[in-house]
Amino acid sequence: MREFKNKVAVITGAGNGFGLEFAKECAERQMKVVIADIEEDDLKNTEKIVKEMGAETLAIVTDVSIYDEVKKLADRTIEKFGSVDLLFNNAGVVVAGPVWELPIREWDWIMGSNVYGIIHGLKAFIPIMLKQDTPCHIVNSASVAGLLTTQNMVAYHTTKHASVALTESTNYSLQAINSKIKMSVFCPGFVQTDLDNCDRHRPERFKIDPNEPYYESAAYKAGIERGHYVINNGMPIDSIRQSVFMAIEEEQFYILTHPQYNLVIGKRVKDMLEGKNPDVSMFFN
Asked: For residue 136, which of 72, 129, 163, 224 is within the disulfide window of CB 3.0 to 4.6 Å?
């Protein structure tokens, strides 16, 4: 996809972080921008920014973990603009801790946002794109955590590996029917986003239970502390959007923004092929 002017972009998780940056880039490229987020105040802020940049904009409060809300997002997009050309399935959250300590509610929340959020976006928008039969592009936000694994981030790694596999398999299926839809999976490392504050986005059904021992555990507190540290010391976010749009223009499937992780990703694959077992000591060398 190389032509952006007057095309229609849909962005979930658009209230902050990558979603806000993608919305600004779309506006700069004179696209019509549909923005969605679970937080109404954040969404209004993004709407104000892109409107001031001159973009025709539609803002819809959306919980991507609920299919009917994503379907409504798709329907409203077509009602307003008549088509969709670029889709960012971008909404996501993070939780930390070992599997034996994580409450099931945490799994439900992160799976609903990071995995089902993408599934819902693909199910709602791909039929529209197929019917249009025009060049379109879909970017699913995953993470470098979908290409490697570490300790005590089991839920996040699980969802991000699922996001990568979901995107790869869907891409194969679209190729097999000679679709004009291209896909990318966005796999950044640590970036200065608002991801470490994602607890504020929890829907009521996933609210923290103060009686659950996990929330007083060392693993939970360490995860919160580490999250703040790595995000605050990550790559500046304003350098990301140009890289992503360049990848869209070049129809690049894997979008990796942190080359320092390439050796670790390569070692993981090499160890598999050589029959080596995962070894936690690699994180302490």
From this structure: 129
Cα angle: 257, vertex 268, 101; to 5 degrees: 90
| Structural domain span for residue 204 | 8-284
Give the whole-angstrom CA distance, residue 22 versus residue 19: 5
What φ, ψ does residue 89 adopt, rounded to 5°?
Answer: -85, 90
CATH, residue 102: 3.40.50.720
> Where is 106: in which H helix or E strand?
helix 104-114
Please report, to the nearest 10 degrees, the dihedral formed by the alpha carbons of residues 206, 210, 212, 214 taken in order. 90
Helix (H, G, I), strand (E, B) or coil at 225: helix
The whole-angstrom separation of Cα 71 and Cα 223 is: 34
1 is a domain residue: no
Tell which residue, 29, 80, 40, has the closest CA to residue 200: 40
Among 119, 167, 105, CA closest to 142: 167
Query: What is the secondary structure of 44-68 as a DSSP string?
Result: HHHHHHHHHTT--EEEEE--TTSHH
What DSSP state is assigned to residue 235? B
The confidence band for 82, taking pLDDT boundaries of 50, 70 and 90, is very high
pLDDT attached to residue 283: 66
Q: What is the pLDDT of residues 23-41, one digit of tens each?
A: 999 999 999 999 999 999 9
The overall pTM is greater than 0.70: yes
Catalytic residues, by residue number, are 156
| Cβ pair 121, 239 in contact under 8 A | no
What is the pLDDT confidence band of residue 161, given thresholds at 50, 70 and 90?
Answer: very high
- 99 burial via Cβ count (<10 Å: 0-12, 13-18, 19+): exposed
Which among 65, 72, 73 is positioned nearest to 11, based on CA atoms? 73
Q: Does residue 86 contact residue 136 with C-beta atoms inside 8 Å?
A: yes
- What's the number of domains the chain is made of? 1
